[in-house]
Model the fold of this input.
Amino acid sequence: LSRDGVQRFIRAVFPSSVEDVAIRVYERSKKQTGLWFRTQILLSVIMGFLVWVALSILGVKHAFLLGLLAALFEIVPYVGPILAGAVAVLVALTSSAGLALTTLLVFLGIQQLENHLLVPILMRRTVGLHPVIVIIALLIGAEILGVLGILIAVPVAAVFQEVVDEWSSRKKPRAEMIV
Done:
């Protein structure tokens, strides 16, 4: 309800000795979550464009609308692209079975490109998470909470990384003092 509501909540809940650390972690986590969301939007635009170009080359009717649909559905990882691909295959099926099969194969190829190349690279560059951590976070999120888990997996991993980074940075000065 107010601009500093979370900070006030943190100050009310955490002991005064760790308030500043908790607020620092919150601020960095908020930034990371924003970067993740912008990356999701970028992925949506890229995937929508790739689908539009691929379907246009194949000659699928309404390629632009299908690309737009793919971009919108891309916001929901895994499930969204499957639904967009199913719609595109059904539209292609109105022309021919061969075109529908080719459309399916193109969608599978585009999704492989996204899942194994684009997502890990973009998440690494923007959010700072290693690609393996992104993939593991997505798998854990899917296993625990299904689609909701997939949606929140990367932001949760980013917050977890911020907590670990803060904790390890606080440990380093003590270790240096011993040496």
